[in-house]
Amino acid sequence: MIMRPTGQADGPYDVAFLPRQQMTLRAAEQPVSDPVAKLGGQPVWLDEPAWPVDPASGRPLVFIGQFPIPGDELRLAYLFLDEEDLIMGGDAPETGEAVLLVQPDGRIPSFGCTDRIR
Fold first, then answer.
1. φ and ψ at 93, to 5 degrees?
2. How far apart (Å, rounded) are the C-alpha atoms in residues 47 and 102?
């Protein structure tokens, strides 16, 4: 994925509706091992791996992707979802069926148990 700023706003109130960055998807020719935006595969951890599990069943959640967080410091957001239900990720944020982890220095939600063995 290549991230770049998007277009300009036409008026003073239009800027709120513009995305701040745009992603262009391209297939990787080999596994991605750099801390860049990507979908699928295995996460590229910036800190110690912390794989979330479903608090109810203990099953590991599915890694969806990682995304750089804008700023001077390199930080990544990692998205994990539970795929067992018909509604992927569940329908209530506190169930732990969808977890967004941030590294480094992110907090682990109280409802998102982590499996550090993986």
1. -65, -20
2. 10
